[in-house]
Amino acid sequence: MIQKKSMCPKYFIFQVSFSVFSLLLIVCALKVIWPRTDAFYDISPVINAAQHTKKYPEFVEWWYFDGQINGGRSFNLTFWTASNNLWVELDMFDQNTGKSQTYKVDVADKDSVISTVSFQLKMAESWAYEDNGVYRVSFKNDRCHFEFDLKPMIRPFAEKAYFPLERYEFWPWVAAVPRGKIQGFLIIDGKKVDIAGEGYHDHNYFPRLKYYPVKMKGWYWGRFFTPNYTMIVANLKSYPWMYIYLFKQDKHVKSGNSRGIFEIKSLDRNNLKRTSPTFKFLFDSDTLFISNENILLKNDFFMRMDNKVELKIVDGDQETIEKGQGLSEIVW
């Protein structure tokens, strides 16, 4: 009978040590290959909305507002700052006519005042600031004057992605108003209408312009409102997870960097007008179906869409389905 030799203790210790060392190498490699993210809820939206990038030689930073308002209108408004490139742009879509209109103002650096300690900015005749929790915003050019208050319905959240191989490469995303009430007025070519609806506001910045959006390799982002739920999703092409935030009324239900399923169907970048992109997010047992209704803005860099959504929430044996609307964008 051949007896099996027992494993040498030293060899066993070597095998265990080698396995642990290999595992650590794999973990370190993943940290290098994939960006790291930090989600933080206890933030001051005012401080985080201040300008952060002025000290960097090349930067890009922007403050974004959007909404769906009465009269069948959707809009997005962006205050954009980058090295030697400042502008304010309002994109308005009218569902009654099926047409989009863009109003843009290029801003000289001498005509721009942006606080580095609180949320106060003025670019030419357009401005935005925070006033006791309410965001007061105004866009103005020679044809259009759009002014509104955005009152938060949900507390802010923020996310920060790091790129480990670069000293200053990180991308903070501050959703200062995940969902809020809009009240104000719109004047186009001398005709004034009062407006009301719901909207969203966030703030993003990159310390190095040359890495935007190369490091991200494009993304899909969207915010979606149903009567009782708010869901915000983002899928970064350079990152294996999805950011997903779900709120029921004003309460945070769940969030995370889910390895859920993200499906894109019928998306033809070169011929988008003849296609109707549809999307599906799966997060745990919940499902969000997104259909494109209208294209608000499209160029070689990105596409922004007006959406209809259906959200299915599963809680134990109970299933809730709600329909609503949203805005989303694809950056190539």
Topology:
Blueprint: H1 9-33, E1 36-40, H2 45-48, E2 60-69, E3 73-82, E4 85-94, E5 99-107, E6 112-114, E7 120-123, E8 126-131, E9 134-140, E10 144-152, E11 157-162, E12 170-188, E13 191-206, E14 219-225, E15 229-236, E16 242-248, E17 251-258, E18 262-265, E19 278-283, E20 286-298, E21 302-315, E22 318-331
Antiparallel strand pairs: 1-11, 2-3, 2-13, 3-4, 4-5, 6-7, 7-8, 8-9, 9-10, 10-12, 11-12, 12-13, 14-15, 14-22, 15-16, 16-17, 18-19, 19-20, 20-21, 21-22
Q: Any overview of this molecule?
A:
This protein is mainly β and 332 residues long. It has two domains: 34-215, Beta Barrel (AttH-like fold); 217-332. It is built from two helices and 22 strands. It has helices spanning 9-33, 45-48, and strands at 36-40, 60-69, 73-82, 85-94, 99-107, 112-114, 120-123, 126-131, 134-140, 144-152, 157-162, 170-188, 191-206, 219-225, 229-236, 242-248, 251-258, 262-265, 278-283, 286-298, 302-315, 318-331. The strands form two sheets. Strands 1, 2, 3, 4, 5, 6, 7, 8, 9, 10, 11, 12 and 13 form a 13-stranded antiparallel β-sheet that branches. A nine-stranded antiparallel β-sheet has the order 17-16-15-14-22-21-20-19-18, with no helix packed on it. A hairpin with a 4-residue loop joins strand 4 (85-94) and strand 5. The longest helix is centred in the N-terminal third of the chain and has 25 residues, at 9-33.
